[in-house]
Design brief:
It is a single chain. By secondary structure, this protein is α+β, with helices and mostly antiparallel strands. The protein has one domain (about 25-250). It has helices at about 35-50, 50-55, 65-75, 105-110, 140-145, 150-155, 160-175, 245-250; strands at about 25, 55-60, 85, 90, 95-100, 115-125, 125-135, 180-190, 210-220, 230-240. The protein has a seven-stranded antiparallel β-sheet with strand order 1-8-9-10-6-7-2.
């Protein structure tokens, strides 16, 4: 399969390289349309058609959370010139027309935007993953994470322990509707494939330098009705040679 690449990496946040490294989110620039949008959406359509059970999951009884996420995204798209909605159908930036299926909010989200969407709820003092449409996982498997709290989800991640988790939980607990946060991560990869699931038991080798660089632009937004947290992930994969000198200094420093 041909690699789907952007031509440039784009903006890195001031806190890049630190954990959690978040900054204020400009809501007008929440969802991304870049030069890989059409190709990424074609891949999302394929994954939702052929691998639905691997890329969509929701805990029973969390339908209201997923429905609110869809309404929030549709409201945002209504303010953007790249999308147009009429009579329950959305014309996307690549020309596809997507029917809004309220009975399948996560699947609809997966067809509208390039971002993956994870939904988290506070439960027993921890943020728990209760639903997601995750077409572009990077070294993790959705089925292993659904219903798990943040600390358990990040158990395989080097350096993510109880102290950092406590900071992340406090940060997420303090989120207020209308005021989001964003951050970004990045790693060199030999494999540019967007759908890159790996089970927890698999050995994960992080490369100091490789042909490609993969980055996730992540946003955290409190949803006002259910109080759940919407966590969006926009994935960029570029040739490592496309990094500017300033970007390379930051991602390798």
């Amino acid at each position: 399969m041909e690699a789907i690449l952007q031509t440039r990496l784009g903006e890195l946040p001031p806190g890049y390289g630190r954990l959690p490294g978040t900054g204020p989110l400009d809501m007008a620039r929440w969802l991304m349309v870049d030069d890989a949008y059409a190709a990424q959406m074609a891949e999302r359509e394929r994954l939702l058609r052929d691998h639905r059970g691997e890329v969509v999951a929701m805990e029973p009884g969390r339908e209201a959370v997923a429905a609110e996420a869809l309404r929030m995204v549709l409201a945002h798209l209504g303010e953007r010139e790249e999308w147009a909605e009429e009579a329950g159908r959305v014309t996307c930036p690549d020309g596809r027309r997507v029917t809004v299926d309220e009975a399948d909010p996560l699947g609809t989200l997966g067809r509208l935007i390039a971002e993956d969407i994870c939904l988290l709820e506070a439960r027993d003092g921890a943020q728990v993953l209760v639903g997601a449409v995750l077409c572009f996982p990077s070294r993790w498997v959705l089925a292993e994470k659904i219903g798990r709290p943040m600390l358990r989800i990040h158990a395989p991640v080097p350096g993510y322990g109880e102290a950092l988790n406590a900071r992340v939980e406090r940060m997420m607990g303090a989120l207020r509707p209308g005021v989001g946060l964003w951050r970004a991560n990045g790693h060199f990869h030999s494999d540019p494939m967007l759908f890159y699931p790996r089970p927890e038991v698999a050995k994960k080798e992080w490369e100091a330098e490789a042909r490609y660089f993969r980055s996730e632009r992540q946003a955290l937004i409190r949803m006002p009705e259910t109080g759940a947290t919407l966590f969006s992930i926009h994935t960029t994969v570029v040739e490592a040679s496309a990094l500017t000198e300033a970007q390379r200094a930051r991602v390798t420093g």
